[in-house]
Amino acid sequence: MNAFKPLVFSGVQPTGNLHLGNYLGAIRKFVALQEDNDCIYCVVDMHAITAQLVHSDLKAQTRSIAAAFIASGIDPVKHIVFNQSAVPQHAELAWVFNCVARIGWMERMTQFKDKSGKNAEQVSLGLLAYPSLMAADILVYRATHVPVGDDQKQHLELARDIAQKFNIDFGDHIRKAGLGLDITVGDEPVHAYFPMVEPLIGGPAPRVMSLKDGTKKMSKSDPSDLSRINLMDDVDAISKKIKKAKTDPDALPSEVEGLKGRAEAENLVGIYAALSDKSKADVLAEFGGQQFSAFKPALVDLAVNVLAPINNGMRRLLDDVSHIDAILKDGGERAGAIAQKTMDEVRDIIGFLR
After folding, report:
1. 101, 160, 246, 247: which sits with the fewest CB atoms below 10 Å from its CB?
2. Catalytic pick from 29, 59, 78, 217?
3. Which tens digits make up the pLDDT trace of 14-27?
4. CB atoms within 10 A of CB 242
C-alpha cells in the first residue's frame, strides 16, 4: 500500500432536536458522499457530556440522530452507522492524543473560548480536551476525509497537527514496526502512521439562519421553537413556522444583489435554493417581484415535499427502537474491529505491552 485508503468519517452530537440547518449543512452531504466513498457516520454521544454532563434521556437523543441518518438515506449496511461510546478505542486513542497535543493548542480553540467565556477555570476538562477526542474519532479509523462546516475547520486543523506530531515523534518506531507510509507534508518527507486528514467542502454550504432573526444561525438552543424547523416537525408545524417567519414589506428582488441588507429575505431564498438544489439567482428569476405572501406558500410546499418523508421515516424507526439499536450494535461491532486494529498498532508503535 503506497497511499492511505480513502475513507470518510463524520459525527453528529445527540443534543436537542435536529433541525433544517443540520440537515442541509451536514446530513444531506453525508447521504451524497456515500455514493462514491466508504463512509463511517457516528453519533458522538461521548462529546455530548462535555458541556452538559447530565441529560434527561441521552439514549433517546442518540437513537433520534441515528433515525435521522437512516431516514435521510444513509445506508447502514453498505456503510457504518454507530454510537461513539460503543467503541472504547475512541477514548483510548484520545488519551494518547492528550499526551501528544499541547495545552496551548487547546486553549486557542475558538469554540473553547466561546463556550467557556470568562469562566474558563470552571468548565470541565472535557470541554478543553474534546478536540483531542474529535481527532481520535477520525484517526482511530485512519480516515482521510471529513465533511466540515466553517465552525469545525479549526478542529480539523488540530487533528492534522496531532497526527503530524505523532508521526514525527514516533517516526523511527513507525518505521521499525513496518506500519507507516512515506508522505510529504508541505515540503517535509514524513514516515506516517496517521493520514493528514483533508476537509470535504463540496460546494458552498447553505447557511441556514433563524426564522425569527435572519442575523442568527438556526439553533437547537434558541428558546423559541418558531425559530427553527425541526426534522420531527409535522406538516402543520412546518407550514406554521414558515408562514410566521420574519420578513420585510418589500417584494423579492429579481437579482441576488438586491438581497443585501435584507437578512430575512436572503435566508428564506437561501432555504428555498438549498431544498430545491438551485442557486439563489435561479430562485429569484422565478419569484423576483413577488411578495412574500406568494413566496411563502411555495416554500411551504417545497419544504414539506423534502422533509415529510424524512419525518415519517424517523417516526417509523423511533416507534421500533429495537431496529435502531440493532443497526447501532452492528455498526459498533464493525467500527470496533477497525478501531481495535488501529489501537493494537498504536500500542506497538508507542511500546505498550500487549
Report:
1. 246
2. 217
3. 976 899 998 998 89
4. 22
The conformational region for residue 99 under phi > 0 = left, psi -120 to 50 = alpha, else beta, is alpha
Four-residue CA torsion sign, 139, 142, 145, 146: negative
Q: Which residues pair with 42 in a beta bridge?
A: 11, 82
Q: Report the percent of the chain where pLDDT is more than 90.
A: 77
- The band of 205, judged by pLDDT with boundaries at 50, 70 and 90, is low
Q: Which of 220, 246, 278, 341 is catalytic?
A: 220
- What pLDDT digit, counting tens, does each position of 206-243 carry? 689 999 999 999 988 889 999 999 999 999 999 999 99
Residue matched to cell numbers 431496529: 323
341 is catalytic: no
In whole angstroms, what is the distance from residue 207 CA to residue 25 CA?
7
Catalytic residue among 115, 165, 212, 278: 115
d(CA 243, CA 348) in angstroms, rounded, equals: 60
Q: Which residues contact 207 (CB under 8 A, 6 or more apart)?
A: 25, 217, 270
**CA–CA distance, 110 with 116 (Å, rounded to integer):** 10
Range name among 7-16, 40-49, 139-148 with the lowest pLDDT average: 7-16
Say whether 116 sits in a helix, a strand or coil.
helix
Question: What integer pLDDT is reported at residue 123 of this predicted model?
Answer: 81
Give the pTM. Answer: 0.90
Picking from 201, 211, 209, the residue whose alpha carbon sits closest to that of residue 243 is: 211
DSSP string for 300-323 = HHHHHHHHHHHHHHHHHHHT-HHH
Q: What is the pLDDT of residue 138?
A: 97
Give Cα separations from 68 to 226, 232, 255 (angstroms). Answer: 21, 9, 35
| C-alpha cell read off for 158 | 488540530
Is 153 a catalytic site residue? no
Backbone angles phi, psi at 190, to 5 degrees: -135, 135
Mean pLDDT to the nearest integer, 125-145 = 94
Question: Any catalytic annotation for residue 241?
Answer: no
